[in-house]
Amino acid sequence: xxxxxxxxxxxxxxxxxxxxxxxxxxxxxxxxxxxxxxxxxxxxxxxxxxxxxxxxxxxxxxxxxxxxxxxxxxxxxxxxxxxxxxxxxxxxxxxxxxxxx
Length: 101
Hints:
The chain is α+β, with helices and mostly antiparallel strands. Helix content is 17%, strand content 46%.
C-alpha cells in the first residue's frame, strides 16, 4: 500500500510539472543589426555595398542604412571613377560613419 501511495505522489508531481503554462516563456532572440551612416554631399555619387548599388537621397547630408552585423565592402564612385574603397564593420546596435568624398 505504501508503494502505491508513493507511486501516486510521484505521478501527481510529474503531472503538475508538465502542466505548467508555457506562456511565460518568450523568445528574446533578435537579429543583430547596426547602422551605416554616410555623411556628405551625395550628388553625383554612386555607392556600392557588396557590389550592389544603394540609393542615396541627394537632398540630405546624411544617409542612414540599417544593415545586419558583419563585414561589408563599400565603394563610392563619383562620375564613374572610384573615389573610395573601404571594408566596413557593422556592429550590433552601433552606427558606423563614413564620410562621402
